[in-house]
Amino acid sequence: MSVSDKIKAGLKLEGKKIEELAEMLNISRQSMSNKFYRDSFSAEDLIKIADFLGYSLAFVSNNQNITFSMDDIKQKKNDEQTE
Predict the structure, then answer these.
(1) Which pTM value belongs to this model?
(2) Which of 33, 34, 37, 58 lies 20 to 30 Å from 27 when distance is taken between CA atoms?
(3) Of residues 51, 70, 59, 69, the one with CA closest to residue 10
(4) How buried is 45 (Cβ within 10 angstroms: 0-12 exposed, 13-18 middle, 19+ buried)?
């Protein structure tokens, strides 16, 4: 299952629409369609989408979980501004 398919499944489960997702990401419906068609979502997109759906985005192994959140995006932007 592609990332796009997983996002679509999440939207369906949560009763959200692609148009709402595009608006939240502040992009056009056409740009959103292109992301789905190309299966091209950035890490920042995925964190925002997970937050939008009320999900967590994480790397999971047998004994450890590393979770990503909106705070990681804020920290990245702060780091870029101080460079």
Answers:
(1) 0.83
(2) 58
(3) 51
(4) middle
Position 54, amino acid: G
* CB count in 10 Å sphere of residue 62: 4
3-14 vs 18-25: helix crossing angle, rounded to 10: 110
User: CB of 49 within 8 A of CB of 68?
Assistant: no
pLDDT band at 83 (very low <50, low <70, confident <90, very high): low
Domains observed in the chain = 3-82 (1.10.260.40)
pLDDT band for position 63 (50/70/90)?
confident
Tokens standing for 62? Answer: 């047998």
